[in-house]
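Hi all, long-time lurker, first post. I run a small reading group and we've been trying to get comfortable going from sequence to structure in the token notation. Rather than ask abstract questions, I figured I'd post a concrete chain and ask someone more experienced to write out its structure so we can walk through it together at our next meeting. Sequence below, copied exactly:
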Amino acid sequence: MAASVRKWILSLALVAVSLFVFNRWIVIHMVNDILRAKIIRFQITCLIQAFMIVMTLFNWINLSDLFDTVNDKVKIDGSDIDKEKKSSKFRFEIHWREIANWKQYSVQSALWRGFLMTALILSQFVYTSFSFLISSEPYLVTYLFFLCLAFSVQLFAAQVVLYAVKTLLKLIDKNSLKHRSRPSKFPRIAVVLYALFIVTVGFYNTFKVPEIKEVNIPIKGLPSHLDKFTITFVSDIHLGPTVGKRTLEKIVHMINYLHSDIVIIGGDLVDGRVDQLTSATESLDWIKSKYGVYFVTGNHEYYTTDVHNWFENLESLGVKILHNSNVVIKGAGNTGICLAGVDDPTADTFKFMDHTMDIGGALRTCDESSPVILIAHQPKAAKAALMSNHRVDLVLSGHTHGGQMFPLTIGAYFFNPYYAGLYRHGEHSHVYVSMGTVYWGFPIRFGTNREITKITLVTKD
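-- Answer (accepted) --
Happy to help. Here is the structure in token form:
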């Protein structure tokens, strides 16, 4: 087992070094921006797919025998697999005889193995859907793929937590687990029930309409004629494999119901190319607001490798693009608000055309005597803007989704400087992070809400 693990680690290390060299000396120096972006996206997809395969193997090996009886053991070379499982804590080796000899299993064991294998196999087709299964309305099969992946993720996470708890108990009392002649199946059954519960309730939650959150934010030096200026902020709609035309139309109706002075789309609007989703975005032309609709890129616009065409498409629908640029909204007075938008930092990773996270370019021409509102999709871009020498009164971000579900909530919380909701920075600045208007990929929301935010700017005393 140890030799096998060392072999896997060495292989992965060699692949990582090869990719680094390939990217450093070939990909980054490519002249064709679109081809470079596609290669980088393919590499990211391969890394994620590799992790998904490892997760799938882990789930199968540790849970496939959950409902086996004594008579269901498979003998290989004179030793049964059940004994081998007891001898190692984490196994990443499959004995194919387990699958080939399916006729020997009891009915309950065969049904469970069939269900688990089907779910784990279907979960591997998630990234295929981004290339071949995107249209104006989602295909039902893509929901199945993503739900199976969510189920696999929950199984994996729960088992890791279970193993951590067992390890902790052993450290506390080394004799606590020695008295059992055979490990109880209850913890593993609880893992499966937990995963099914999270996926079922989380899927149900995605059908709820977005919560309308109303937030008042004091702005220093806000012109009196712009007091009570309203902004409808939406982010992370993710039109793509599981989000389609009808969902966006409902969101547009909710936006119009709020009658805000301005509408802002804070990135990650799409997860596909223009030719796949043209009709899905048509309802953006229905949005009504006094001072217009504005958009900045998120990381997923760059994952599509089609962001340049999306700019043309959105502008044709009346959406104004803030591409490291700003506009001044004066209203009825001579002074106003500088509304700026910055490209997502993913643009720098992809080195896509003239796209880059240029905070200075976005804010340089803003009047320092006027309030400044910056739209930056990722909270880390928001932090960089607030740490700059430019005046920034309010940053609007998304990206985190509030984690969407456990264990993603852990990463969303610890890897972002701002997680969700309203934050104060210094004496006069604020950051607002939306949990997202829809969801990404997994049609799951557990412990988080879809939201549309109505922000009211008020004069600060």
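A couple of things your group might point at:
Confidence is low (pLDDT under 50) at residues 75-79, 83-92.
Residues 140-172 form the longest helix (33 residues).
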